[in-house]
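Much of what follows relies on a compact textual record of a protein's fold. With that in mind, consider the following protein and its fold in token form.
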Amino acid sequence: MTLTSARQSEALEADLDRTRRTRQLVERLIAEPALLGPDFTPIRRLDAAAPGLAPLLGWKATGRGSPGTPVADTLSLLEHAKTLGLVERLDWAFRAHTFDVAIDSGLAGELHLTPEPETFGAPCPPRLAVAVLRGRRALDVCAELHEDSFVDERRLLAAVDEMTSWGWHLVLVDPDDTDVRSTALRLLERIRPAYVQVDLGRPGRLADPTLPAWVDAAVASGASLMALDVATNRDLESAVGLGASYGRGALLGRTTSRPV
């Protein structure tokens, strides 16, 4: 074996070892959903006088992995879960545990979460069915539809019908991709979102010349506008100027382990 091939073999072995350990981490989270968090961020009505004390609309729940691991934050957790083909199982585990925590904490207002597209139309695992059904009956759930939700339009619309039948409200997240935004605009009447989100933290978002038309169309469909990443008073002014009624971000309240 040459030195080069030996190094390639070592690198491959190291990659396989990392993949195996990452799979173990994700599968443990699926088996023990309490380790997923969740973290809850308050969503408030925008009020310049007292932003952090403005009336509460609800809470956005996000998952995370164990601190100090490759899946510690939400994005890395999802990225690894998708690579490993474990997103569907992870999403159901997170959803069930989040419902339990929300109910047990006496959550006031709406619960916002992000169903992953891999879970659209997928049956709930039997071991989680009681918790999921309990949550559907007890909570006012709002489901966020992100850009990747539009990859398969037929699957998306079937999921929209299903979630609507559960009594869930829909939140349409402003896409980065102009083609996806066009599709979202075309489907506004079918999706009928309760909210449309605009992320103020996205570079160049407020300078986007197509943003006002997007906001106007969304509001005309009956949606309320929600601003994300409201971290400063200047962000708050921008959100209100855009026409947002609700928002979340550091200025409006910190993330906590329980929605209280």
User: Anything to note?
Assistant: The beta strands are 39-45, 56-62, 110-113, 140-145, 169-173, 195-199, 224-228, 246-248. The domain at 3-252 is CATH 3.20.20.450 (TIM Barrel). The first helix runs from residue 3 to 31. The mean pLDDT is 90.
